[in-house]
Specification:
This protein is 41% helix and 23% strand. It starts with a helix and ends with a strand. It is α/β, with parallel strands linked by helices. The strands form two sheets. The protein has a six-stranded mixed sheet, sandwiched between helices. A six-stranded mixed sheet has the order 7-9-10-8-11-12. Helix 2 links the parallel strand 1 and strand 2.
C-alpha cells in the first residue's frame, strides 16, 4: 500500500513539475523582447520642413526620444536611428533597423501644406492614391539629395517621378498587412487619446520604408505650416502627448499580437507517447499573427518556436492519411513547398 502510494506521489510530482515547466516557459515567451526602431526624421544638414520658423528635425527628435523612453518603461527594447542633431542617410537608417532584427519600425516626421491643413496622419509603403499622398512622399524622399552618390545607391530613384514609386512597393509587400495594422493602432490613438483630426492611414512611396524588412510606419505628427499646430508640436506638452499616444498604440499592438498567437513550447517532456502529424507551411525569424489573411486565407495555422525560428504549421492530425489530405489542401492555397512533420509529444521527430 505504501509502495503504491509512493508511486502515485511520484507520478503526481512528475505531472506537477511538467505543468510548472509549461507555465514557466510560456511566461518566459510572453516576456520575450519586443524591439522597436524609432527613427527621428531628417537631422543635421537636413532641417526638414521649417513652416512658421519651426524645425522639423528638432521636433521629430524630441518626440522620438520621448517615445523611446516611454516604450522602454513598457519593457520594449528601443533602437534609435539618431539621438542627436546629425544627418543619417535613409539607406543607413534601414540598414540599422534590419541589423537590429526589430519587430517594428516607426519614422517620426512633421507635415507641411500650402493651406492651413492640420491633424496627425500615418503612412505605410504603397502606391499613392492621389496627388496629395505623392506630395507628402516626395517631400520626405527629397532627403536623398543631401546624400553623396544617391543616384547609384537608390538605383536611379527619382522622388519627383511618380513612376519611380512603383518599384518601391515590392520589398515591403510581405509586411503590408502588419504595417497597416500597426498604423491603425497609432492613428486611433491620436484620435481617441488626443482628439486629433483623423487623417486616416494612407499609402505612399516613402523610400525610408522600402528597405526595412519588418512592419514599418511613417508618422506625420502634424503640420508646422499651421501656426497653432506648429506651436503645439514645438512645445514640451505637445511632444510629450504625441510620444505617449504613439507609445500606448505600440504597446497595445504588441500585446494584441502575442495574445492572438498560439505558441507551443517544445522544451519540455510529456509523460505519454502521443504521435501526431502537421503540415509545415512556412518558417521565419519574425513572429507573424495567426490570422488567415497572413497565410493566404488558410485557417487552423499554429506556430512553434525552435531556436531563433518560428515554424508555422497547418493543422494537427492523428494519422498520416489525414495529414496528406491537408498537405494537398495547403498546396492548393499556394504553399507549394510545404511538407509533413511527424511529432511525438509535441516534439518534431522527422520530415516525410
Amino acid at each position: 500500500m505504501i509502495i503504491l502510494l509512493c508511486n502515485f506521489c511520484m507520478k503526481s510530482l512528475k505531472i506537477l513539475i511538467t505543468l510548472i515547466l509549461i507555465i514557466v516557459t510560456n511566461i518566459a515567451f510572453c516576456q520575450e523582447t519586443f524591439k522597436v526602431v524609432v527613427d527621428a526624421g531628417h537631422g543635421g544638414k537636413d532641417p526638414g520642413n521649417t513652416g512658421n520658423g519651426f524645425l522639423e528635425k528638432k521636433i521629430a527628435l524630441n518626440i522620438a526620444l520621448k517615445l523611446g523612453k516611454s516604450l522602454e518603461q513598457n519593457n520594449i527594447d528601443v533602437v534609435y536611428t539618431r539621438k542627436s542633431d546629425v544627418f543619417v542617410d535613409l539607406f543607413d537608417r534601414a540598414n540599422l533597423a534590419n541589423k537590429s532584427d526589430a519587430q517594428l519600425f516607426i519614422s517620426i516626421h512633421c507635415d507641411s501644406h500650402t493651406s492651413q491643413a492640420y491633424g496627425a496622419g500615418t503612412f505605410v509603403l504603397g502606391l499613392h492614391a492621389n496627388q496629395r499622398n505623392f506630395e507628402v512622399a516626395k517631400k520626405e524622399n527629397s532627403v536623398i539629395f543631401y546624400e553623396d552618390d544617391y543616384n547609384t545607391r537608390y538605383e536611379g530613384f527619382d522622388p519627383n517621378n511618380p513612376e519611380s514609386v512603383i518599384g518601391l512597393t515590392l520589398m515591403q509587400e510581405v509586411y503590408l498587412d502588419q504595417s497597416i495594422l500597426a498604423a491603425s493602432y497609432i492613428q486611433n490613438s491620436f484620435v481617441n487619446n488626443l482628439n486629433r483630426k483623423d487623417r486616416t492611414v494612407k499609402q505612399a512611396g516613402f523610400i525610408v520604408l522600402k528597405y526595412t524588412y519588418m512592419p514599418s510606419v511613417l508618422v506625420e505628427t502634424g503640420f508646422l505650416t499651421n501656426k497653432s499646430e506648429g506651436i503645439y508640436l514645438n512645445s514640451e506638452k505637445g511632444q510629450t502627448e504625441m510620444a505617449k499616444a504613439i507609445s500606448s498604440a505600440i504597446v497595445q499592438y504588441r500585446d494584441d499580437l502575442y495574445k492572438n498567437l498560439s505558441i507551443e513550447n517544445t522544451n519540455f517532456e510529456q509523460q505519454n507517447d502521443l504521435i501526431t502529424y502537421r503540415v509545415q507551411i512556412a518558417a521565419s525569424n519574425k513572429l507573424i499573427e495567426l490570422k488567415p489573411y497572413n497565410f493566404k486565407g488558410l485557417n487552423s495555422v499554429n506556430v512553434i518556436k525552435q531556436g531563433d525560428l518560428y515554424k508555422y504549421f497547418y493543422g494537427i492530425y492523428n494519422s498520416i492519411d489525414k495529414a496528406e489530405i491537408a498537405l494537398d489542401h495547403a498546396k492548393r492555397y499556394g504553399f507549394n513547398s510545404s511538407f509533413i512533420v511527424r511529432f511525438k509529444n509535441n516534439l518534431p521527430l522527422s520530415i516525410n
